[in-house]
Amino acid sequence: QVQLVESGGGLVQPGGSLRLSCAASGSIFSIMAKNWYRQAPGKERELVATIASDVSTKYADSVKGRCIISRDNAKNTVYLQMNSLKPEDTAVYYCNAFIYSGAGLGNYWGQGTQVTVSS
Hints:
By secondary structure, this protein is mostly beta strands. Helices cover 0% and strands 60% of the residues. It is built from no helices and eleven strands. Strand 5 and strand 6 form a beta hairpin.
């Protein structure tokens, strides 16, 4: 069974940085696109960044220039480096990936990691 596990969230002051990680485990054949979403209290979940299998990336306008998504295929891990954090970046961050496994192609989500930006 495929699982995604996020880590790296926490409390940081405005202007600070955090690096989120998302490790996939299980009977994985290949990982297609990997995404980071976030959901703030009272708001809808929004796509923050995407990295495709060809390593092309896309970012939400709200984080462009401040975040970098990357992947380590050998470790089945995706990262989100977040810099110059703002209070409005406070949210639960979720990892999402389309993965070919022994169960076929599936859309998987992690449990989420809290990021709080506050002084």
